[in-house]
From TrEMBL:
Name of the protein described by the UniProt record: HD domain-containing protein
Length: 251
């Protein structure tokens, strides 16, 4: 399934897979899609159920100023079984990226819908697509690049959106670093994504890490606790971007 999105990250040559195996894989993915869709509304204790990765409603899509790009994103996301790929990756690896994405998508749409209902010029399609796709590049990193995933995933995310010709959603998805807050002219959709990303982090829970949604203040404290050996200049940079996020939250 990864070969559809990032063929360069796949070690097994796809051409060596027989047609019968391909058909079996696709059948499995279709069954998995049905099961995972049920899980979203099952009420279990997972992030995937508490904060299900749902997209815009039919009415919201019809109200978009230009729904074509959002529909293109949804088509690519579904055709390449992105959600199923993320779920399988989480099951076989130690990384809970899908939990992170679910939490961010939930906050981003919650905030975005509030601003939209207040009459602010915010594009819910770009928020939804960027929230769901902002970390997709993490799955494009090769085994030899795992240690550099925090830096390289921006490149692979950009590559995926460009491959599908989804420039506007892609621009928001790629520019979600807290350091982007240092720019003076930042789209509202980017600010919402950065704010959401800032609040969803792993927390230590005994022998393993567990994804949690923090308050803005607590999330900032988590960062400060990790900055004991960081130079004062970088600490001040974090304080400045936190103040911008706090101003946004207060608004």
């Amino acid at each position: 399934v990864l070969s559809q999105s990032f063929p360069g990250a796949v070690e097994l040559p796809v051409k060596d897979i027989s047609d019968n195996c391909r058909k079996a894989f696709l059948l499995y993915l279709e069954f998995l899609r049905v099961i995972l869709e049920f899980q979203k509304s099952s009420g279990d204790s997972t992030f995937h159920s508490k904060y299900p990765l749902n997209f815009l409603t039919y009415e919201e899509k019809n109200k978009l100023e230009d729904p074509a790009e959002y529909k293109k994103f949804l088509k690519a996301f579904n055709n390449e079984y992105i959600y199923e790929m993320m779920k399988l990756s989480q099951e076989i690896s130690k990384y809970n990226t899908l939990d992170h994405i679910c939490g961010i998508n939930w906050i981003a749409l919650f905030v975005g819908r509030q601003l939209y209902n207040l009459g602010l010029p915010v594009d819910l399609g770009r928020i939804s697509g960027a929230a769901a796709g902002h970390d997709i590049g993490k799955y494009g990193c090769k085994d030899t690049e795992i240690e550099r995933t925090p830096y390289l995933h921006y490149y692979y995310t950009d590559m995926w959106f460009k491959k599908h010709n989804i420039p506007y959603i892609g621009h928001i998805a790629v520019n979600h670093s807290v350091w982007d807050l240092e720019l003076e002219d930042l789209p509202l959709e980017s600010l919402i994504l950065i704010y959401s990303d800032f609040r969803v982090k792993n927390a230590n829970n005994g022998s393993k890490e567990e994804m949690r949604i923090f308050s803005l203040k607590d999330s900032f404290q988590v960062i400060l606790d990790k900055l004991d050996n960081v130079v004062e200049k970088k600490r001040k940079r974090y304080c400045r971007v936190y103040e911008k996020l706090k101003d946004f939250e207060d608004y």
